[in-house]
Every structure is written in C-alpha cells, then in structure tokens.
## 1
Amino acid sequence: MKQYHIHNTFLSLLLILAAVTGGCAKNDQTAAKEKLSIVTTTGMIADAASIIGGDNIQVTALMGPGVDPHLYKATKGDVDQLETADLILYNGLHLEGKMVDVFENMSKSKPTVAVAAVILDSELRHPTEFQGHPDPHVWFDVSLWRMAVGAVAFEIAQLDSVNRPLYHERATVYLDSLTQLHQWVQEQMATIPEDQRILVTAHDAFGYFGRAYNIEVRGLQGISTVTEAGLYDVTAMVDLLVSQKIKAVFVESSVPKKTIEAVVEGCTSRGHKVIIGGELFSDAMGQSGTPEGTYLGMVRHNVNTIVAALR
Amino acid sequence: MIKNDRPVPIEVHDLTVAYRKKPVLWNIDFSLPEGHLIGLVGPNGAGKSTLIQAIMGLLPVLSGYVKVYGHPLEKNRQLIGYVPQRESVDWDFPVDALDVVTMGRYGHMNAFGKLSKQDREIALSALDKVGMADFAKRQISQLSGGQQQRVFIARALAQEASVYLMDEPFAGVDANTEKAIVALLKELKDRGKTCLVVHHDLHTVREYFDWVMLLNMRLVKFGPTAEIYNEENLRATYGGKLVLLAEAAEKLITKS
Amino acid sequence: MAENLCCLPKPQRNLSRNHNRMDFWELTVRFFSLADANVRQVIAGSILLGGAAGALGCFAYLQRRSLLGDALAHAALPGVGLAFLIVGQKEFVPLLLGATATAWLGALSINAIDRYTKIKLDAALGIVLTVFFGLGIVILTHIQKSGSGSQAGLGSFIFGQAAAMSRQDVVALAVVTVCMLSVVTIGYRHFKLVSFDTGFAFAVGLPVGRLQFILTTMIVLAVTVGLQAVGVVLMAAMLITPAAAARQWTDRLPRMLMLASIFGMLAGLFGSYISFLKPSLPTGPWIVIVVSGIFAVSILFSPRRGVLIRILRHYQHRGKITRDHLVKSLYRVGMERENWYAYYPVSEIAHMWSFTPTELRSGLSQLTAQGFLEREVDMYRLTQNGVSAGARVTRLHRLWEVYLTRYLELPGDHVHRDAEDMEHIITPEMEEQLSQMLDHPVFDPHLQPIPYPTEQKGV
C-alpha cells in the first residue's frame, strides 16, 4: 500500500509539472495538421496512448498482435511512418533490440521517448543471466505499467498543450482503472493453492508478474526468444513439472509452441498429465477489436487463464 | 544414299547441330561402311566431338536424323559402344577399374539393378583384353592416363556392341597404350565391327585407319584412306575457318 | 520406472534460477539409459536424420552439388508462408506440403538455369537460394503485418528446435529414411553411373532425367521433413559434412555411403548428448559442431589423405635421407682409409656431411637401433650391414649418374645433383633394371668404382 501512495504522488507531481511548463511552450505544428500522430512500437503502449489521446490523437502501433518485439526489424514502411509522427513512444530497456539505431535517428527530429525508462532502476528486475541489463517486460506488473502509462500521459500533454485538461481527465480515469486492475490480479492470484504456484511458459517474460503476484515463474527458453532450447532445458522442465505435480503449462501467442509441446509429451510419458492451460499474451496483445486487444483485457485474459488452470 | 539390303551401322542424314547459338555441324551426310576402321579428322573446333555426341543423342540437333542399323537411336542403343573423352569424367570418383568396366553392362540391368554372373565375367574379360586385369581393384585416380583410357575402352568392349564410337582415345597416352589400342581396333575390325574414332595425329592416320572422314563444320571428304587422304583434301579441311558460312549459319540459327 | 528416476532436487521456493545440477555421471547414465521420452525422441530423430542425410549427401557431393541441400532448405521458406496464407493456421501437413512444393520449384529452377543459360551451377545455386529466401521473407513480413495472431514462429519453422522433436517428427523422419534406404539400395548402380559419367549413362540407355528427379526428390523430402525439426543450417550441414568427411577415409563408394551415414548418426547422438549435459546448450547447433569436429579429424588424421599424415611422411623421408648420408659418408671415408670398421667420434662424423645436430643425433641412434652402426660411448662405427648399406647408396648414386650421361647424354658435371636426390628413391627393382640396362658398369662418369657387394641391405 505504501508503494501505491508514492506512485500516486509521483504521478500527480508529473501532471502538475506538465501543467506549469505547458503554458510556456506552444507547438506550432498542432495548428498546421488535422490530428497529431503518435507512433508506438508495442500494442500496449498504443492502447494507453489511444485511451488517453482519444479522438484528438491518431495512434498507430508498429508491432501487431502475435509479433515478437525482440526480433522485430523495422521495414521501410515503418520508418516512413516514424518519419511523419509527431511523437514516438517505445518501451525501451532493450525490448525492441533491433530498432536501436532507428530510435537514435528519429530522436534527432522529434520526441522519441522510452516509456519504461520512467521507472526507477531500483524497481526493475535484474536477472543474473542478463548480465546487468534489466528485464524489459515491465507491463506484466500492473503497478509498474501504471508508471509507464503516466509517462505516456505526460508526453501527450507535452505534445498538445491545448487539450491538456482533456488528457488529464482521461489519464486520471485510466490510471484509476489500472490501480483497480492491479488489486484484482492480486486477489485472483491469491486463490491459487500454494503447491500449484509455478507458472511455466515458453520464455522468460513473466518475471515481473511472478514478483508482483507471488508466483514462481519458469521459462523454457531464456529471456529472449532468439535462443534455442537445449535438451537439458527440456528435460529439466519435465522433471520440475513431474516432481511438483504442476497441472498446467502455458504457451504464448508470440513464441513458437514446439518446445512446450515437447515438454508436455515428456510429462505424459512419465505418467503425469500436464495440460496446456491456454495461450497467454506475453510480448504482444490479442487481435485488435477483441477485448484481449487492449491492455486491460489482455491482463484479465491472462489471469483468468492462469487461475482457471492452476486452481 | 545407295540402299543396300543390309542397313548400315550408322546413317547420318542432313545433320545440323548448334552449340549455344553457334553452328558447329552443318548439313552432315554420311553412311558408315560396316567392318571398317574410320578415322575422324579435322582441326580444333571442327565439330568432331560434337558429331560423336550428336550421334549418341547427347546433344540436341537442329535438323536431320541419325539411324543405327536402319532404326532410330532409341531402339538400337545397345548396338553402339561409346568411349567418351577422358576428361569428361571426374577420375577422383571412388570406384575401381572393374567397377567402371562393369558399367558397360548396365544396359542389361533390370530395374532393380541386378547383374548376372555372365555380366561380371564379360566385364572381367574385357578388362583382360586391354591388359588391365591386374588393376581390377585399383582406384581409378591411381591409374595413369593410358591406363584410364584402356579402362574406358574396356567398358565399351563390355557393351558387346556392333559399332564403336570413340572420342580421342589416343589423347595423352603413352606409346605402349597406343600400340595396344591400335591392336585392339584391328582385332575389332577383323571381327567385323565398325569403329569411328576421333583422331588428332595426322601422321598416323594412314597406318591406323582404312577409311577417313575429313570434317570441318561440314563434311569435306569421306572415303577410303588410300583414295582421299592427300594434301589437297587436307588443305581443304584445315585451311582456316569458313567465315562466310559461319556467319550465315549463325544468323539463321538466331532467327529460327 | 519413470517415477523412481533421480531428478532435480526440489527447487527452493524462492524465485532464483539456481537449482542444483546433477553431476556429469548421473546425467550421462540417464541419457544413455533412454529413460526420458524427450531424450529418446531427440536421439531417434537426430540419428535418423544424420544417417539419411549423410548417405544422400554423398551423391550430391560426388556430383559436385553439395550446396544443393542448403539452397533447397532456403527455397522452402516461401512455401511455408504461402501455405499459412492459404490455410490460415499453423498446421503441420499443409506447411510441410508448401515447403516441399517451393523446394521442388527451387530444384527445377536450378536445373533450368544450369541447362539453358551460360550461368554455372554454383552461381545458379546461389541465385535460387537468395531469390527464394528473399521471397519468403517478403511473404512472412506481410503475414506479420496482417496481424493474424496465430502466426508467431512461422519463421522459426525454418530455424527449428532440435531439442523439441516430437513423435510426429520421428515418425516422419523414419518414413523418409526407409524410403531413402530402399531407393538408394535398389537404384545404387543407376545412381553410381549417373553421378560418375552422365554421358555414358545416356549412351547405355539409363533414364538419366528420371534418375536425377528421384535423387532430387529424396533430397527435397529429407530437407523439408528435417527442416521443421532442426532448421536450415543443420540440414545443410548434415547433407554436406558427413559425406565430405567420409571421402577422406575411403576410395570405395559403398564404404563411403556407410561411413557418411555413421558419421551423421554419431553427430546426432553426441550432439544431443552434449546438449543434455548443461543448460542452454542448443541441440541443433551442437550437432553441427560435432559433425564439423568429425570432419576436422578426418581432414587431419585420415591415413590416406590426412594433412598430418602427409607431414609425418615428409619427416620420415627426411630421416631416411639423413641415414643414407651417414652410411654413405662413413663408407666413403672407410674406403679412403682402407678400413671400414674404424670408430669415429660424433664430432668428426658431423663434419663428413652438413647435418643439423638434431638430424645427426636421431640418425645415429636410428642406425644403431637398426643394426647398421655399433656404438661405443660416443664413438660409432659401421657394422657389416652398415658397410653394405653404405655401398648400396653409393652404387645407386653412381648407377644413376651413368644412366644420365649415357641415356640423357648429360655432361658429367651436371649429373651429381640429380643423383644426390635419386639415391634415396631408387627401389631394388629399379636398381636391378638400371644395372641390367646399363650392362653392370664398373665405373661412374667420374671414374669412381661402383661397388657390387654380394649382399644388399637397404637402410
């Protein structure tokens, strides 16, 4: 609860700062074009930006559903879009590993902001395998993601000072719903029995989720999807599942299923029935237009799937 | 062509062959007389190898046809024994001399690749005939040029054909091998076989072959060596490329 | 049985990744006991794949089309994408069919380019590889953009996950291997001739076109089935490397085929084993490392063509040359002093010829061990055998000089250097021939006598 207060104060400070400094700068471009345009990398950022921006802002995401941001390479079409954007929002922390140069280029001519960078380093996870680099999958901890959304709101307010009160209002509502979501997740996850509190997925994206909601997470493939699993990893996972009698494992929409399927086969041959509890959205959200195509919907889907399978 | 009651071993009628749009053989017309040793002679690039390969069906022809004992090639393939040029093959291939000679019997193989005991014996005796019986199990890359040539000839002998086409069998062989090959050719002739042999050494033509075919893109002269192998005809064969003919032919081929 | 297996100890309830590892021996025993289904499947799949690809690769290798497998593996990519576009789902069978179709198209294109244009085969392979693969990337990017959620991992259809071989994969591989075995066994002679001498194959009436078709189809099948199990690089490696390694050890085709299969299978087995020993050792790449290691060993150590063997033989020959010079020098000195059995200190022997200290030392000890020299403290003298040996080398040298002057009509002062080299190489048969041909000459061109002892002993 203490964390909650600090974050709330922090965000309020941000908004006040924006309101104060806002009066000084005037963005001439806003007068020239119809709508301001924001281009984001992941769908999660785009979701937040479009909720806060509403009809006033045109938001586009480069990476659609089912896309792996670790491996994503910008196409020419993407670069063109980035060129015409008024604001570029990306996750940062090396999630979009292959787009670093593009961001550097773009930052010369327009605000190019890593929204996860707003999170204090002490709040981030630093897994040992990642040699000092932080884990970029911050959206799995709703309370951390709330901070990033705050940064999104800040940047939008900066961009379009005219409609600032509008954005402030929408942001406040959305941030509230995020707070509620965080609470809901905590309650739901608490219903999983102690001996089933292990979340097994294809790759190590769910670290923040595990830390925030008190469940042990195991990925088969390591933190990035680029690596290939080894026979030891597969067998070790089977051992874990069998010895702990874990009921379910989960596949991810943006990572190939083959290794998880092999693990299930291995468990079955040892007489332990493991089901694939469902598909989780990890590095990307679901189809746009569906509830899972929004951040709130995605999180709810994930939690419902996990809880139903492990309870 | 004079029609005999017996069909000739090889009849070539109006054959024109192009290689990559360049004319190589132009209106070739001949019938091989049975039971003779025929030397095929001409300058470099005259189309001698091409003629052999065209008869074997290895190259597409622009016009004309080839008949083997009165029938198309596909029907009477097994009557032709073929000795290709030595460098047409990678001699580093992991087979021994007997393997190569046995390949001459592959025309008699069934779909399952089975050869009879008789086939094996024929192969061995062919190898023996060229004096290479001791080298049966020797890997072919360990053979000298002359020995490789003998193996190739043995392979053709194993085919037990009636007419033999040989592409430069004397190229790069030692004197002993050359003598052995000539003796073999003479023996084939005595047994009534016909041989058409591409040859490059003008000095030995008279000694080796009783008929000769002078070729330079077109058939210059064809007949018994004693009659037609003279300076005048040689000059006509070797006297430089027929530029006009070559140009005209090239235009024709590109247009068609 | 499965339940009692030792396995990882109960993981701590904290979220750290450090769990105790099983030690090396436990892991080895567990691997080879084939107790785990995953292990069994991966071993079975990689052994089948290694064996089939190894044998098929031999024919491609001998026809100088080794890179064909690599080109076809890349050519399969657009087929995967197209199949997904048509079916809308990541289904095993349609994707396999798609991959096979475009891989086949690639094979046809390679042949067409080779036959109908001036472009050579290796360039044709490269062109088809890159064009098809580029097309595949375009299609996959389009799929990526179209936002269909279930397309994740299409591209890794190409890169494979060897550690995740399923029963389905193993069955498919087994079918391909059985097909391939039967085809190669039945058509062995046909393929042998077609690979060796296509022209003659035509001449003999073999259906060359159809045979090449069958061979290429086998390669396409192996590539597409193996591809989605283990990926592009591994497939290319398994089609090329075992065949190339096997060639180093044998000059006979049946043995080459067998060795290539065995190498492929060993690589599959040991690559899987290594990736079982520690975390994060990807299985596919380790199989490639093992097969490359086998190749390196073959290149270096094979008795016929190995690099190290050749170096060894070179030094052995140098040793012989040194020993020849030693006995020859001692013989000559003995001739001059009319006493062959005198002792000489090492320092004096060193001056009889230009030896390096190492050569001198090893030469002397070898000759002593072989019975050509006798040793007393640091003095050496010739034995009777040694004298014969020295006489022989001298004789060979002088015979060769006579041969050169008489047959090649070289002047007397030109022949010495040549004879210096030849005296180490002339075999007893050649010596006999020379002697007879030259009619047992008594003197060499420098009027030195040619020794003919009754017994001959070579060094």
## 2
Amino acid sequence: MKRLWPRSLVGQLLLLVALMLLLAQAINSFLLYRGAQTQNLVEASTGAVARIAFGLERQASDRPARRAGSMRARRWGQLKYSAESAVTDDMQRLPELESRAGQAFANMGTGFSEIRASFNRDLDPAMAGHLIGANRGEWRKGPINRSMGGRLEPRAIRGYVIISARQADGQWVSIASTVRGRSPLMVRTLLLQTVMIYLLMLIPLFLLGRYVSRPLKSLTATALDFRPGETPALPEQGPPDTRDLIRAFNAMGARVSTMISEKDVMLGAIGHDLRTPLAALRVRVENVEDATERERMIAGIEDIDHMLDDILSLARLGRSQDQAEPVDIRSLIETVVDEFTDLGHIVRYQRGDKQRALVRETLVRRALRNLVGNATLYGKAADISVENSGDRLMIHIDDSGPGIPEATIESMFEPFLRGEASRNRATGGSGLGLTLARAIARDHGGDIILKNRAGGGLRATLVLPAG
Amino acid sequence: MTHKIHILLVDDEASLREPLADYLVKQGYKVQQASDASVARSLLNAYDFDIILLDIMMPGEDGLSFCRHVTDKTEIPVIFISARTEETERIIGLELGADDYVTKPFSPRELVARIKVVLRRAEKGAPRQVGTSEGGYRFSGWTLKCDKRSLVDADGDTISLSTGEYQMLLALVSRAGKVLNRDQLLDITQGREAHAFDRAVDNQISRLRRKIEADPKNPEIIKTVWGGGYVLAGEVLSL
C-alpha cells in the first residue's frame, strides 16, 4: 500500500484529485441515476393521471357506450372501476407520487377523495388490460436512436405504476402505466463524461504540478550541494510562491557565502598579521641568555605558528584552486611515514600493491600527518595499512595507546579539544588536528572514523575516494 | 680587516626588521635596512651588496617586483622572507630567481645558515637556477613536472615526494648522465628550503628508489657509482 502512494508532490496531488474526482463522479452518477428513475416514474404516472382525467371527462360528456371496447381506449388502456382500490395494502405506496397526482387532478379540475399510487416490479394480474402503452417486454425504437441511424435500443421496463383514485361515489378508478428502465445511453454518457473530466482536470493539473515541482526539485538539489561562494544563484522560475522561495534561498546563499568568505578573510588576516610580530619575537628570543628558557620560548612560538598554520589551512579549505588528481597512495603514506621516522617515532607501513586515490596531495598528506601525529603522540607507535572497498580507499592508522572512551569519540573532532586535558601543555598541538583532518577528508568526499580496537588502542581510518 | 658580508634587509615591519638587523650585525654581518622597495632601490645604487633579504608583502612596490628588478640587473642573490606559506607563492618566488625562501616566524640561526649556503653557491659561480626546464623532464616512463613540483608515473598517477626527495630527483634528472657525489648533491639540494633535519643523501636516495624503481634493490634509474656518487641513467627528455 505504501508503495502505491507516490512520494512526490505532483504524484500525491494527482492521485488525490483523481480519487476525489472518482468519488464526485460516483455521487454524480448515483444522483443522475436516481433522478432518471424518478423521472421515469413521474413520466409513467403523468400518463396515468392524464388517462384517468381524460376517461372521466369522456364519461361525464355522456358517451358511456364507448366506455369499453374502443380502439383508442384499448391502446390507451382501459380504466378499471372497482369498489376496492387497485392499489392493495400489501403494495409499496409512493406518497410523493400520490401528492403529485392529487396536484395534477386538482389542476385539471377533477377532485378525488383519495388517491393511491404504487410501484410494482410485476404487473398485478388484476390490472392486466388496464395498462397504458407498451406491453411488458416490448422493444421499441427509441426516437433518438432512430434519428441516429435507427439502431434498436432495448428499452427495458423496470416495473409498473398503478394510480388509483376514489371518486365521489366511493368507486375507485385505476390505471397502470409502464415505467421505463435506465437507458444504456446514460451509462455511456456518464463514462464519456468521466473520461472527459479526467482529461480536462488531470492534464492541466499534471502540467501545473510539474511547473511547480521542477523548480522545487532543482532547489532541493542546489541546497544539498551548496558550497559557499561556488554555488551559482538559482534561476527564479515557477509560480510566484516558488519564485519567492528561490529568491529567498539565493539571498540566504549569498549571505552564507559572504559570511564564510568574511570569516576566511579574517582568519587569513589574523594568521598573516600574527606571523610578523611572532617572527620579531622569534628573533628577539635569541637574545635570551638562559638556554633552557630560550628553548622553551622557541617551542612556544613554534606552537603558536603551527596553530596559525592549522587555522589558515582550515580557512582556505574548500577554496583550493587545485584539482584532485589520481595519487599513488603508497608514496603519500611513505612520505608521511618518513617524516615521523626521521623524528625518531615508530611508524610501520608495508608497501603493497598500488592503490590509487583521487585527492589533492598536499591536503591529504596533511590530514594523514595529523592522524599519524596523534597515533605517535598518544599511542607511542603507529601501524598503517590500506584497504580498498571498490570506490573507497581506507587508510587505517592503528596505535597501541589507551584509546578513547566511546562516549567522547565524536567530540574529538571538535576544534580545540584534546583527548586528555591534563596532557594539553605537555603534548602541544593546535587542537585543530582532527578537525582539520576531517575537514580535508570531507572536502574530498571522504571522512575520518575513530574506533577503539578490540585488542586495545585506537584505529583512525582516513576514508578517501578511490581513483 | 676581512671583508664583511654586506646584507640589504628589506621589510616594512620595523618591529621585525630592527631586531633582525641587530642579530645579523651580532653575527658579524654589515646590514643596511630598507622599509620599502624605493628605499631599497636607492640603497642598491649606493652600495655593493652580497645578499638581499626581501619581504614579499610590502606597501607600494612588492617584494616580487623588486626581486625581478634585482635578478634582472644584478647577480646579487635574494632570500625571500614572507608570512605567506602557500605553495604557489613559494614557487613563484623561486621562479623569479630568488635563491631561497624562509617563512615567518623563522629561526635566525637557520636564516644565517641559509645565507651561508646561498653565498657559498654564489661564490662557486653556480647558476642561480638549478637549470630547471620550463615544463619538466621525462625519463624512464616518469614525468617530473617542475611547475607543479610533482612526479607522475606512466599511468598518469601522481607520486608523493617530500621536498627533499623532489630536490634530489630534480638535481639528478637535470644533470642526467653526470655523476654527482654526496657533497655536490647536498650542496645543490640543501640551500633551497633546507629542512630542519638534514637527511643523509643516501637515505634520501633510497627513499626515492623505493618510490620510483621497479626493484629498489637493483636500481635501474638512479644508479650508484663506485667511488661515492649517484647518476641518473637512461634518456631524459626536457619538456
């Protein structure tokens, strides 16, 4: 059931309208059908009323001899005179017809003390010979169809109306009349009508829906892939509401881009402008006599420098002009590994088969450097391995350190937050390492995943798009 | 009295320029300070300098433009001092003919070490440029792109190289067929962007071999020459 319910706006709208149309058309058909039934009933009773009124008129004009047996009377049906009403008590009475008939008689100046009307599917045998018009089961040419090629139309008889009226002398005069069944023409008309309404309603609605939903679709796609400063403004199209939405979205995108570029410019300026006084400080430090003090100051300046470097890299990320290129990931890992082994760290990597990643080499080198740096810092030694899962390349960096409590793993990626608060001073680092590494990985469409290893230690995985 | 090395120090930031000048004087150099390029130009006409330390970002004429002027008109070596660390700018600076590049904040001792290397190289009359070809070199299925400082293999995949490895490979490739001993290699590769850790030439070579040789134990591209030295074998095509 859920699968049948369309997910798109247009689909839902169309389905809903189609269902409502179907319902409306069903009600319409029902009413039409009912109306046609009443119409037929009224037609039949009108004939009967006229026959009674006419018959009584003739009787009054003193031509009793012709009361029975005349041709016309036979075709029209003989009026039945009886002491009891032809409409017996077990018959279904039609009060509405009775009052209509009473009205009709009154209009013709004929008064009756009581009028009964009833509808029966079968003709009461007592009324045989007192029936106006066609006999039961007769087929005749419908006047409309005759003019349209004379095709025979079955005119089913639905039943019989009996009108019975009590005269002033207490005698009942009664006549029966056939009630026509529904015409197949009506069904056809209804079907045609339904199809026409569907075409007339649903096609424009479908076009309107597309007109509305297409700009919405492109808006969704643009919002999903939004890259500040790069995503061009969306053309304003569709109905006014949608245009307003697109205009608002474009304005918001422009504001976001401006804010981000302001942020980047500011960070860049901070990074740049801080470097000069830092350089001056670095030169002056050489004047410090105490060697230990001097080394500490130099280390402090270098810390600030690295932090500025990370901040600048983070600010510049995503606006790099470089294109991603297929890189032999083995060489990249080796370059990083060599940097750490040169510093006396233990980082192991066994060159395997060529693995290609589609990356910007300098950035990914930096991300990997940060991860390996963490591994050697907290875990003493690092083991690097590469895993290929088709379109993804995973570089695992395993350490043998204490790992990270599961609850705080995600927060490790927050800027300026380090694993162990107590070790902040001793270990240095900008606190941006993981933030920057993840930003770089995500900029490439990859990610960084931290996971405690079963045997102890942490596994950091750098996921990259395979080339 | 021995000849004192004469340095022209160009930087608009007095807070850095002055203590640096003091430091250099203490180290036995003679220093002239310029706060912008126009002052530097007039000083350049008035004195004979051995080396110029030049800031890139300056109000008015910037360091890059002044560097072009110096390398066009004189043989004086130039070391850039800049707060910018973007790789592209570094490359532009070196392409303009600067001999080295230090980024702020730098260790004054390292700066002095670099000054010495640059001067030694200038004294030997070594060409300012390491004879780099505009586009790069093609050798044994590899392409060394000088504009991007990258190495690309036969499949078109980039091979990551450390700065030291790149310098070493460039030195060997641009002098293909010539045997270079360890001292020569150190001399060629070290002055520019010397690293905090002077890696032994042999170490650098073995790392390069691991990355580019089919069998690093039996090298076909970078061959060892008996008597201490390395040579790049095979044909090299300048691009």
